Amino acid sequence: MDDVSIIELLQKRDQSAINELRQKYERLCTYIAGNVLSQHEDVEECVNSACYEIWDSIPPAKPNDLKSYLCSVVRNIAINRLEYNSAAKRDSRYTVSLDEISECVPADADDNITLSELADAISRFLRTQDELQRRIFVRRYTYGDSVAEIAKRFSLNESTVSTYLFRTRKKLKVFLKKEGYDYE
């Protein structure tokens, strides 16, 4: 079933939408949550919570890209779970990528900016980048892959991946400022 049909089912409050969502995206959600969390039970709980949050948020939300919306929800739930689990200590596996992206993306949108608007702006920016840089950026900041994993996936040196990420973050920061997201 395609994403538009799943969104329509969600808007009609048809519970089969959750089954369709799980069938299509459960492996991806598990992968994303698994890159943030180390405990299998936490990953499962995160995926379940994401499905509930999608059910609860659509409607009124009308995402243009269900996959991106779901990935964002899963990642945010997993990050919150990681913060809860580690409290004072930090798990550097994922927080390093969060620290990197925090340079150019506001952690908390203000009252005038919704997270979906910010996500749309980032998506528009990524569509302007060449495919390799876009894919590297998404692997790092959406899926939570390490620089080493990305380098291996794309047959690149780790330093090349780091450079691509740095340059893309720098361009994203400029883009977001032009879009009115100057939060500093």
From TrEMBL:
The keyword Cell cycle does not apply. InterPro entries: RNA_pol_sigma-70-like (IPR039425), RNA_pol_sigma-70_dom (IPR014284), RNA_pol_sigma70_r2 (IPR007627), RNA_pol_sigma70_r4_t2 (IPR013249), RNA_pol_sigma_r2 (IPR013325), RNA_pol_sigma_r3/r4-like (IPR013324), Tscrpt_reg_LuxR_C (IPR000792), WH-like_DNA-bd_sf (IPR036388). GO terms for biological process: DNA-templated transcription initiation. Keywords: DNA-binding, Sigma factor, Transcription, Transcription regulation. GO terms for molecular function: DNA binding; sigma factor activity. Gene3D superfamilies: 1.10.1740.10, Winged helix-like DNA-binding domain superfamily/Winged helix DNA-binding domain (1.10.10.10). Residues 144-171 form the HTH luxR-type domain. It holds the Pfam family Sigma70_r4_2. Belongs to the sigma-70 factor family. ECF subfamily. This is RNA polymerase sigma-70 factor, ECF subfamily. It comes from Ruminococcus flavefaciens. The lineage of its organism: Bacteria, Bacillati, Bacillota, Clostridia, Eubacteriales.
